[in-house]
Design brief:
The protein is globular, with a radius of gyration of 16 Å. It contains 9 helices and 5 strands; from the N terminus they run H-E-H-E-H-H-H-E-H-E-H-H-E-H. It has a 5-stranded parallel beta sheet, sandwiched between helices. The structure holds shikimate-3-phosphate. Shikimate-3-phosphate (S3P) binds next to loops.
């Protein structure tokens, strides 16, 4: 997308772009690139939660449990989404909390980064910072999570395939799809509405 079209898109953007999808789909990398293209702030919700808690995601899971993590995640996303337009990468399980999901559907432009199980497995195998994959066979756990979560992810405004690895092409595709959503979607929550 050329610079002029991006500028017009940026001016029309009245809400955040929120990336959802499984761990390993590249939400952080693609989110940062998308934010750079739009000259917007980029925030990763896991980073925000870690900053607020003063410890890592793994430590939060260990010390306080997943329910507590999801609660913190909801509060962080509520704050981020109600703030100025930006690009937000969420943790893979954020939309499993019904209230968090509703916030995203109502107040943001949601983008599901989809990837095949084999790609996810290869990517998550590179780090050991995912608490949900620590207790068992990562392939089996990922397959189960994917099955449970796909119907939720599928509610996103935009679905793109992140399996191919061509990040520039993917960012361009997202920009074009965001342009279409802004032109066609009647959002439940109107932002900057004239009174
Ligand atoms: C999780 C994904 C992680 C992180 C936490 C739980 C999940 O984020 O929020 O480990 O439930 O899928 P990424 O998707 O950024 O890895």
């Amino acid at each position: 997308m050329n610079a002029e079209r991006i500028l017009i898109l940026r001016e029309k953007l009245d809400r955040p772009i929120v990336l959802i999808g499984m761990m390993g789909t590249g939400k952080t990398k693609i989110g940062a690139m998308l934010a750079r293209a739009l000259d917007l702030e980029f925030v990763d919700s896991d980073d925000e939660i870690q900053r607020a808690a003063g410890c890592s995601v793994s430590e939060i899971f260990e010390r306080f449990g997943e329910a507590s993590f999801r609660d913190g995640e909801k509060r962080v996303l509520k704050r981020l989404i109600s703030d100025a337009p930006k690009v937000i990468a969420t943790g893979g399980g954020a939309v499993t909390n019904a209230e968090t999901a509703q916030l995203i559907w109502d107040d943001a432009i949601s983008v599901w980064l989809k990837a095949d199980l084999a790609v996810l497995l290869e990517r998550v195998g590179r780090t050991d910072r995912r608490p949900l994959l620590k207790n068992g066979d990562p392939a089996k756990i990922l397959a189960e999570l994917l099955e449970k979560r796909e119907p939720i992810y599928a509610r996103a405004d935009i679905t793109v395939d992140s399996s191919t690895g061509d990040a520039d092409a993917l960012v361009n595709e997202i920009l074009e799809r965001v342009e279409t959503v802004l032109a066609t979607k009647a959002f439940a929550q109107k932002k900057n509405a004239q009174t």
